[in-house]
Amino acid sequence: MSDGAAPLRILRAHSNAAIAARDSARVVAFMTEDVVVQVAGGPVLRGTAANLAAWEEQMGAPGFGGYVRTPQQLTVADSGTEATELGHWEGRWTVRGRTQTQSGRYSATWRLDPMGWRIASETFLP
Fold this sequence. Notes:
Elements (H helix, E strand, L loop, with lengths): L5 H15 L3 H6 L1 E8 L5 E3 H14 L3 E13 L5 E14 L2 E16 L2 E10 L1
């Protein structure tokens, strides 16, 4: 882990908090406009509009219990403007009174732009 990774850990914690609060606009605010997200077992979402729609749909479901992404490795490139994140994710839903969990590994690419560090891509594997 690079010394420059601490801000990314904080941003990931804020992203997790936005998911827990069911704040889809805040979740997408951590992403670049051209973000590409590969959903575990699902579609590829391109851009913030597609990601916002997907988050709103999930967060609107009564059984949505949220996601938590836990970084295990963060590496900032020598340029200081790009970083990679590898970790574990977990999602929860309540269906007919039972909590269901899905989890796996993920990778993310962060870019530093005038708005600060933002997610350029994420890939979630079950």
